[in-house]
Methylated-DNA--protein-cysteine methyltransferase (Sinomonas cellulolyticus), 214 residues
Amino acid sequence: MTSTDQTASAPGIGPVDLAFPPHLAVIEPGVLEGLRRSLAAKANREGLLDVAYCVVDSPVGRLLIAATERGLVRVAFEREGHEAVLQSLAQKLSPRILEAPARLGSAAREIEEYFGGKRTSFDLPLDLSLSAGFRRTVLAHLGRIPFGGTESYTEVARAVGNPRAVRAVGTACATNPLPVVVPCHRVLRSDGSLGGYIGGLEAKNALLVLEGSA
């Protein structure tokens, strides 16, 4: 059945209309906000962590930065859709999503220093709970690629002990929840071309130019 089909059938049952009545397809004003409040109250009762966030300006566009009590948990480019990122954090970490620039002061300052050419590494506690297994192993290695240096996806695979996992390294970089801070932009194809990047190739090239490696 294609995505445009509006009916389906089951053994012994005639066609079933899957189209929603128009009055059920409209979300009433305030429903989403009410849902968020109820989820936040539930999280408070269950003792879940807060996720604080703010948006900062940068030469590669507005960046959403978010942190738990453990550390910085997410950096998101505008092209990812900041609202979608916040919804994902609510689902994966906690519905207690709070706009709290003061709690992100250190992260915002270090990001500003990095783009201003005053910082070559970050000294922030990180919460890597959005990555696990091999992907987290790759992220740990990325932090050891020095400012101004690059490695190929093949070299990273070898460095983490799985030379055949080149594609998996690419996936780990593409799903890096902390771009810029965990420098997946320093990973290139073996021929020196950029490969992919969660923030777009223009942003990846800009970061490499900033670091003097492009």
